[in-house]
Amino acid sequence: MQKRYPIVIWSILLGFFVFHRVLEDAIPMLSFFDECIGVLCIPLAVYDYWKNKNKNENQRFYGNRKLEFVFLILFLAVGAAGNICYHFQPAWIAMISAVLSTKYFLILLSAGFLQKYLSIDLQEQEFTVEILSILWFVYYGIAFFFRDYLVVPEPWDICAKSSLLFAMLIFCNHKKVWLYRICLFLMIIMLILSGKEKSYGAILAFAVLYYLVVHKKVQTKLRYILYMAVPIVLLAWDKIYYYYVQGHGQYAKSIMTSAALKIARDYFPIGTGFGTYGSTYAAKYYSPVYYLYGIADYPELGEQTKMYLTDLFWPILLGANGEFVTLLYCGLIGIMFVRIQRVFYYHKRKYLLLIYMLIFMLMTTFSEAGFMQPVVMIYAFVMGTLLEEYEAKRNQKMKYFR
What we know:
Structural class: mainly alpha
Distance between the termini: 30 Å
Order of helices and strands: HHHHHHHHHHHHHHHHHHH
């Protein structure tokens, strides 16, 4: 039987991630909630090192965690080179944008350290997931009818949160089957109501993964992920054709992508620096780069409107930080993939949830801001918890072979 207080702490944090966009509208200070959780990894890492400094190194840093830190430091150092060389934005904007760019991996690390001391068995948290699913559905229903008083979650917010809750419901143990079925049905309704093609792609991806991993006991190889991408691309083909083929050079997505490729070529290999292209602060404090490449001339991307400037992921990396940092980011995703693959031999259902979250995140990098999108930081929190749970079990087993 788990102690109550770790479960309460973890459940509250998960609830904050689910209702983050709603809560920050009521309490503006909570808009920095996910950033605070991300930065928390620094004092937690220092505390962990200090507490275990006389113990075996494997007990301090499991698996690839040291490699993650090295890649993150390189990512920040090389990314900042563009700011140092070209000075398109003030240093404080560059610093904040750097944190936002790495926030997903910072939260992943923070969740891992928290899990180390809370020791949550995620599969036993069905009550928390069911309650949050019901609250999420009820809030949307109330907000829809009282939109003058409450914030209605955006379609992308609904899609991201509901797809994760849907997967977590299937993942958790089911002590009350009737409640589980009701919650599952509610999340399917939410996914349909979001109106996003990714919702259908998420359900399709989860169904395929469930069949492969749980029934066939097959580990998800990279080629299987590429196979799954085909029907998902077909589901979204109308929009891809509309933005990138028919409307090439006319719509925001194609304009921002073309400009990013030009910037990457002109400022090879370090880009223009953090906070200069495609990020929240590049839009809020309108970046000079947008004038330099004619982006400000388009009405929907101009300084007065500032619309659709943060809708893409890979162009943000290429334009702001160049080819080398983009490769480093791919390396961080690769490390995460390797860590997830190891979980297959430990627990099939936990592996299923992890690989599903990674595939969903990869899907978002081609149509949204991907790993930099605030609404998906809950994925980093859940993923970090599960990965650390596996690493702790693995480290415990390794003691018998030392």
